[in-house]
Amino acid sequence: MQCARHSGVETGLACGRCETPICPKCAVMTDVGARCPSCAPTRKLPQFELSPLLLLRGAGAALVSGTALGSLWAFLLPGGLGFLALILAFVLGYAVGEAVSWATNRKSGPALQIEAAAGVVLAYIVRNLVIESEPVLTDDLIGYVAIGLAVIVAVNRLRY
User: Three-state secondary structure along 71-112?
Assistant: First the structure.
């Protein structure tokens, strides 16, 4: 039997759906067996399909959670308290990521990761505004490290 796409290539493999002869080069492995490129599913997984409404809900969740957690951060640790802020960063990142995930029915993907990261940065800015300083401090090394860790945690919470 000859491959339907690559003439001259002998094969014993056929598409599981349409029975077209396919060689290993053009076979697409799926969870139900080898398929030809025409029959292989080209849809995204449902976990990654995001409608504009879900993106809006994710942005709203990032906005609300970032604002609320930034205010809470300002009241709990107004002076920073050094490395305790790093522990808080893990909680902050997870909470913002979880809020975005929950608001979007447990979807994930790069767009939601960006929204969660923006929610974490918003929490930092809100914290600084609540403690009545500049929105972005120039000498806040622990704060920058904490925000970096929180962004990493939030993004990984929405990873595929």
Answer: HHHHHHCCCCCCCHHHHHHHHHHHHHHHHHHHHCCCCCCHHH
Q: How far apart are the first and last CA of the chain?
A: 39
Eight-class DSSP state of 10: B
The per-residue pLDDT for range 17-67, each reduced to its tens digit, is: 898 999 988 888 888 888 888 888 766 667 778 899 999 999 999 999 999
Integer CA distances (angstroms), 157 to 18, 73, 104, 108, 149, in order:
40, 20, 13, 9, 12
Does the predicted TM-score (pTM) go above 0.85? no
Structure tokens at 52: 């504009």
Q: Identity (one letter) of the amino acid at 8?
A: G
* Residue 35, C-beta contacts closer than 8 angstroms, at least 6 positions apart: 15, 16, 17, 27, 28, 29
